[in-house]
DNA sequence: CGCAACAATTGCGCGACACAATCTAACGAG
DNA sequence: CTCGTTAGATTGTGTCGCGCAATTGTTGCG
C-alpha cells in the first residue's frame, strides 16, 4: 500500500485498480441512461430524439439518411423523429439548394439551449467533482475520457458491422 | 504551458481542462447508450430489459415493485419486462416463502454470463485504455469515476423527485 | 370475521419503430 | 432531348413496449 512497491506488487494493485474502474463504469452508465431518458421526457420528446439532437450538436447538421446512420435508426423512423423534433422547435429542415433531394437537418438555437439547460444539473455536479483534482490529474482524466470515447465509437462500429450471433 | 504557472494561469488551464472533460462526456455517453441498445438487441431483449438485468446484477435481487422503482418503470411494464427476461432465460421468479404476495426476481447464471459475454468487447477495450496509466493515475481515475457515478445517482433522484417544468 | 392495504398481474390504448411501397429529383446512356 | 436508373425523403402498415386503470390473490388490522 506504500508508494514504493515492487513491480509485481504494483502490477497486482494495477490490475485491481483497473478492474475497479471497469466495474464502476456499468453502474455509472446505467444512471446516465436514466438521466437521458428523464431529460428527454421533460423536453416532451423520446430518448431517441434527445440522442439525435445530441448527435446533431456534436457532429454538426446532417441529412436525414446520414442522421439515421449516426443514431442507428431506419430512414423511415428518422423522418418521423425529425417531425417530432421539429414540432418541439428543436430542429429545422433546410433544403439543400445544390441538390433538391437533400434536406439538411440542423438544430435550432432553442434546441441547443434546451440541451445545456436540461444538462445543467449534471454539468454542475461534474464540475464540482472535477474541482477536487489538480491540473495534472485533470489531464489524466481528459486523456482517459477521450480514449474511452474513442473505444466506445469503435465498439459501436464493431457491433453494427458484425453479424448477429457472431 | 510550463509546469510552473501562476495561480491565475493555472486556474485558466484548470477550467479549460475541466470544460474539455465535461464536453467529452456527452459524446461518450451517446456511444455507450448505443452499445447498450445494440447489445440488448443481440440478446433478443429490449434496451430496458438489459438495463433491468444490470440493476439486478448491481444491486441484487429484488421484487417487481422495487425493480420498477430502480429502472423507472411502472409496475405493469415491469411485470411484462420480467416476462421477457424470463422467456430469454435471464431471470427467474422466486416466490417469497414468508410473504406469498412477494415474488423475488433474481438473475440466472445464464443471464449474468450474457452480460459479461456481450460486454467483453468494451471491457477489453477499456482495459486496454487503462493500461496506459500508472498506479497513481488509476487511483485518480477511480476516484473520479466513483464520484461521477454518485453524482449521476444524485441527479437521477433529483430529476425523479422534482416536478416537471421546474 | 370482514375490510383496508399491498403486491403482482392483465385489459386497453397510444405511440415509436421496422419494413416496404411511393414520390420527387438528379444522373447517365443512347 | 428523352428515358431508365439511382438516390433521398417521406408515407402506409404491422408489431410491440409502455403507461394507466382494473383485477386477483395475500396480508394484517380493527
Automatic annotation (TrEMBL), chains A, B:
An MF annotation (GO) of this entry: DNA-binding transcription factor activity
Coiled coil: none
GO biological process: response to stress
Residues covered by the HTH marR-type domain: 1-150
Pfam families assigned to the protein according to its UniProt record, in alphabetical order: MarR
Protein name, as recorded: MarR family transcriptional regulator
Organism in which the protein naturally occurs: Streptomyces resistomycificus
